[in-house]
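User: For a benchmark we're assembling, each entry needs the component sequences followed by a predicted structure for the full assembly. Here are entry 17's components. Please fill in the structure.
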Amino acid sequence: MSAHRIIAFAGLAAALVLPLALQAADQSFYVGFASRVLIWAIAASSLNLVLGYGGMISFGHAAFVGTGAYVSGILIAEGVTSAWIGWPVAMLASAVLALAIGAASLRTRGVYFIMITLAFAQMMYYLVNSMKAYGGDEGMNLPARAVLGFGFDPGNEVTFYYVVLAALFAVLYATHRLVHARFGRVIVAIRENESRAEAIGFPVYRYKLVCFVLAGAAGGLAGALLASHGKYVNPSVLHWTQSGTLMIMVILGGVGRLWGGALGAGVLLVLEHLIAEHPIPWLLTLAPDYPQHANLGVGLVMLAIVLYAPQGVAGLFSRKTGKEHG
Amino acid sequence: MAELLEIHSLAKRFGGVVATDDVSLEVRAGEVHALIGPNGAGKTTLVAQLSGSLAPDAGTIAFEGRDITRLAQHERVKAGLARSFQLTSIFGRLSVLENLALAVQARSGSSLSFWRPVAAEHALTDAATDVAGEIGLAERAQVPAGELAHGEQRALEMGLALATRPRLLLLDEPMAGMGPEESQRIVALIERVRTGVAVLLIEHDMDAVFRLADRISVLVNGRVIATGAPGEIRANEEVRKAYLGDEALST
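Assistant: Structure for entry 17:
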């Protein structure tokens, strides 16, 4: 436990000094990249709540991220620029969508649940594709990031980085509290043995739905941050491959582990970036096109994780494998 | 004695197969009521309907005078009707104490609590510790349930139902897959808990049934063909023919 704490605080310290170190090293470009990693860390962490703790294999989580992105983007485009309005509204919209999708799909189990969440997410994808007023399939450029007030300039990359970092830690801390509270015990119990959870008196469906909605809301926050970050939203955020990428992040990082989503997002995005932007010369002579096939590298790492670290990257930091559930 | 559970004309069919055919049965407060019958008699289907995981096609179930036929499973547990499973169904990766604390948590207030650490709720752990003692697993409280011996898991299986503080305990073959010594342990456990809770016992082990039961009902082809005290059931010609081997009755 204390070793855990030390690693967590070291990670926090590193995250805090990162933008300053990058600036000092004249690598400011990477501050924006780091913010993107943190935003996807929020998205993956929110999926980890349903997938890892709740045991619900949702294959449509991109719908909630994308809805958050579009709702906050549309608000900015329509002149509602305050982040304090836009981001909560985006979370609320994603929560409402999760309530609707969850209410229908949580009646099913196993493969049916996977397919139904996927189908709902694809419906959302086609819906935003057809929203001609907001860019249709081309997406929509935003005039500026959401406004924070209090003298913060969201256009400043370092400021924005800290905002995203704060959001990530808020999500992780809330998740930490939740999984150690009564609610967390129930959703883990449902994951471990659903019929028994019902038989000792828990209304299983209701708890799963609440979990699904909370994760949807957190996914919406990631989407809202994403829209501001790139000053751009487009339908590809809702594409099913994005849902798949989020699942890969969770599996890479550690299913049902607090840091799993964040670690997975970090490993995956850094890896993709390295393969695409920093080709290895000898490999390039061997296979000239390989930087365009970042997925291949991701696939190999995925294979290595499944074979050698089935608990994910987070599992490598923890000796009591399989035991931890909080 | 008052009727605790009243099953009236319950029926369930799957396609052309009649699993439960007009079953009527009463369990009285304070009694151990055994339900016996050959394989395929419809015992498991009946348990599923009583616990609420399967909806009957016809008939009614009343518990303490209240119609519970349409209640969801978790609502029946709240009403005081808890079940154990024939195939052990526990939270394998959680400790014995965590298993039991969950069942205690289910009956003590809302679990839509997202912030307060459950570890701070000593009442849950205390109540779980009591149940662990009751089922003889006090020494094993910290062991992951999946690592327990088979007999211990069967005790925990019953403990999970007991921890919900039911007024009727529905035991679905609690001695399933047990050797004589382990069975002895479960019989002793039922002897202990019966002072506080009525039991509907579905069981194949005739020794256990005739030792524990106040009354026995015999289910054959989805119908109750006889109900009575152990002596009456032993002497019943129809039961003899339909189900019990002569050697089982001679003991």
